[in-house]
Amino acid sequence: MTPSHGSESSLAISAQNLTKTFGTGEDRVNAVDGVSFDVEPGTVVGLLGPNGAGKTTTIKMLLGLVTPTAGSVQVAGQDVAANRYDLYNHVGAMLEGARNVYWRLTVRENLEFFAQLCGHTLTDARGRHHRLMEQFGLAERADEPVSSLSRDMKQRVSLICTLARRTEVIVLDEPTLGLDLESSIELRREIRRLAERDAMTVLLSSHDMDLVEAICDRVIVMHEGAVIADDRVDNLIDLFEVQSYRVVLEPPFPDQLRAELDGTYETHNWTQSSDHVQFDVALSSGSEFYDLISALQAADVTLRSARSLGSDLGDVFLELTDRSNPIGSTPEGR
Ligand SMILES: Nc1ncnc2c1ncn2[C@@H]1O[C@H](COP(=O)(O)OP(=O)(O)OP(=O)(O)O)[C@@H](O)[C@H]1O
Questions:
Q1: For a tag site, which of 117, 161, 201, 316 has the least CB within 10 Å?
Q2: What CATH number was assigned to the domain covering residues 242-309?
């Protein structure tokens, strides 16, 4: 079944000024504070943010599981506040730690149950179910009750039940947490396939930067309840030009120099031997690189090599959340 996109709006997701406050008085928490974003159909969007940034609360508001204090949200053309039950025909979700499958049913029965719930005929769905069970290493356990499977396998069942429904929008909260490497790779492949071939929209929250960088068209970064960046992954990496270098030095290496470098730069992975001293350093501009070289020269230390490790989404994420720069303002030091 090719998803039929909602009629009221051509956007897959439209969140306007979403706000959620928990508690009152001193216990009041502004979990989500005026978040707005639109997502076009067929886009894979990563929702990133440190713990407590408001990702899960945002996701739950998109799914109608938490009622916003203010703001509105449409998903797959459905106004979430008005059409909560209709919404579930258009949206599939796997929330972190959620047991959204029936443990007494077998893997195959779960797939068939959820397929029938959203109106798929079993003759159409069986081929797809078989392929997903093969892909996620569950084919040999297809006729066993979910209760007899390992925790990791239960998660895979929950994941394929969500993917197999082929709803217009899929929401996944920390989908790779607890998955083995092979299943993680299959998940990446399947998500890209669903987006590219079937124009399905996927919103996923994850701390797994490699996953997000590999499969997301766009990332929304949240911090303290607000959106602090919303752009294509490659644009964010270009914008910050955070570069990590591996620096190798010849001994002797004065003791106080390490403390000086640690105080001035973001350094990691120090190793020291009789033959060399090595560390990694993240630099946000070319001039910082030359400052570092000058500091080494001033301390009379010989540089053996400085190799760029490239910059990735992980570097950008740290940069954004450490400094909490709204995109559009110039990052510090540039
Ligand atoms: N039901 C609740 N009652 C009170 N406070 C809550 C509730 N749910 C979330 N919060 C608070 O709201 C803030 C945002 O939480 P949320 O779970 O949305 O963040 P998150 O970005 O998903 O974090 P994590 O990555 O740790 O899951 C946190 O300070 C959290 O403690």
A1: 117
A2: 3.30.70.1140
